[in-house]
Design goal:
The structure holds 2 protein chains of 2 kinds. By secondary structure, chain A is mostly beta strands. Chain A is built from 1 helix and 28 strands. In chain A, the strands form 7 sheets. In chain A, strands 3-2-1-28 form a 4-stranded antiparallel sheet, with no helix packed on it. Chain A has a 4-stranded antiparallel sheet with strand order 4-5-6-7, with no helix packed on it. Chain B has one domain: Beta-grasp domain (Ubiquitin-like (UB roll)), CATH 3.10.20. A 5-stranded mixed sheet of chain B has the order 2-1-5-3-4, covered by helices on one side. Chain B starts with a strand and ends in a 5-residue tail after the last strand. In chain B, strand 3 and strand 4 form a beta hairpin. The chains are: A mainly beta, B alpha+beta. Chains A and B meet through strand 6 and strand 7 of A and helix 2 of B.
């Protein structure tokens, strides 16, 4: 197993060698490594960022030698926006999509060399009502399937396009908005999606870790229902679906204002019934308190029973038996923003 | 004017041909333009969306803090530094 780990200070390559693990790095020393991706042709992508020097995208065929691209996604001067971070890559055939902060969606048809803004979403008529959450005004999750695109934007909500990105609609019915009194009419935007996963064989089935709890849609996001039976808390950032088994994973945190595991018990939870019920995933969890968090980009799996996640405390957890036995690596890293289990 | 440009070490992976370059230009803006022709991947890291030097990037000409319109005498060194921002 090999895992690319993106942290606040550089990237690392963690490799299983027999009964032990080796750590190579840092890649991009001094840079925040915010996302990993892979093109249809197999080229690896790494998004980096710096409070001083902005964002960048690097490419590699071997995860060792990286080359910078010259023109990462950028906002025009006229937009008045700043390119603060590349939150995720998503590969859809020969096209790569990138979700960014300040919130927007960009696409590349040349393996990440050049990028085009998806104007239909980025200049959506509701844009003036998009306001940043705690993590900034960021687009961070992308799903594609059945000629549709879904994008999650923190403190704004889920948008869906049914026409290849030309037009977009808010898809949040059933999810409570954030910071809005119950007696106020539901706004079109103001929903704080944290994570999204779907069934690629049946893309209308979507799972959503939201600021307001865990939700599921059976109709492509038109309506959502709460699914938290067995979870110690509905709050968290991670939702992951193993496409081979259909098993869902999440890592609950206590609450909005207390983003650590409930009672310090860091556990992945799984559902084998599409989210109807949840229980702790396997064993191996630390009995010692683990007051740390897990971010939305810091969980990955390979659809072959192997999963890993990184914590804000810089620890890496993994399993190679579909979540039955978990182990924490001894190595410590800076705050982990992104992991990529290399297939 | 021909001047030397020195970039900070953190940009090592953003360049193709090293952190030191010799370029021509009459002011800092022209010098950076010449640098970006040699190292196009650096532009995004030094210049913001408004076309200005990034807030936390410092440019010095012969040891003096400079802006895009600062003249550059022949033979001087233009040094780009990461500002000491934060704790």
């Amino acid at each position: 197993m090999r895992i690319a780990v993106g942290t606040e200070k550089g990237g690392y390559l963690v490799t299983e060698t027999g009964d032990s693990w080796s750590v190579a790095g840092p890649m991009f020393p001094g840079w925040k490594v915010t996302a990993f991706g892979r093109t249809a042709g197999g080229t690896h992508l790494a998004a980096v960022g710096s409070n001083w020097f902005g964002v960048g995208i690097h490419r590699s065929d071997n995860l060792t030698a990286w080359s910078p691209t010259d023109t990462p996604p950028s906002w025009s001067k006229e937009s008045g926006r700043k390119m603060e971070e590349i939150w995720t890559f998503h590969t859809d055939g020969d096209r790569i999509l990138a979700a960014v902060a300040q919130a927007g969606l960009f696409t590349s048809d040349d393996d990440g060399d050049t990028w085009s803004a998806v104007e239909g979403l980025n200049e959506h008529r509701t844009r003036d009502d998009w306001h940043p959450g705690f993590g900034g005004l960021c687009a961070h999750r992308i799903l594609t399937g059945a000629d549709r695109i879904w994008v999650g934007i923190s403190a704004v909500g889920v948008f869906r396009s049914d026409d290849g990105g030309k037009t977009w609609s808010s898809k949040n019915d059933g999810v409570p908005p954030v910071g809005v009194p119950a007696d106020v009419p539901r706004p079109e935007v103001g929903y704080c999606v944290h994570g999204l996963a779907h069934d690629p064989e049946s893309p209308q089935r979507i799972w959503r870790q939201d600021h307001a709890g865990m939700f599921r849609s059976r109709d492509g996001g038109d309506t959502w229902e709460r699914i938290e039976s067995g979870l110690p808390s509905g709050f968290g950032f991670v939702i992951w679906r193993d496409d081979n088994s259909g098993r869902l994973f999440t890592i609950p945190l206590t609450s909005d204002e207390n983003r650590v595991p409930v009672d310090g018990e860091l556990r992945a939870y799984v559902s084998d019934d599409d989210g109807d019920s949840w229980l702790v995933s396997g064993s191996g969890w630390s009995e010692a308190p683990q007051y740390t968090g897990v971010l939305r980009g810091a969980f990955d799996g390979d659809n072959q029973g192997r999963f890993c996640f990184g914590t804000t405390g810089g620890k890496l957890w993994l399993t190679d038996d579909n979540g039955s036995a978990w182990q924490q690596l001894e190595a410590s890293f800076p705050r982990i923003d992104a992991v990529r289990l290399l297939r | 004017m021909t001047v030397k440009v020195r970039l900070p070490r953190i940009l090592t992976q953003a360049v193709r041909d090293g952190l030191r370059h010799e370029v021509t230009g009459d002011d800092v803006g022209q010098v950076l333009h010449g640098l970006f022709e040699k190292e196009p991947g650096v532009r995004n890291h030094l210049i913001d969306e408004d076309g200005r030097i990034r807030t936390h990037v410092l440019v010095f000409v012969d040891g003096e803090r400079a802006g895009l319109s600062t003249p550059v005498p022949d033979g001087v060194e233009v040094q780009v530094l990461q500002a000491v921002s934060g704790g």
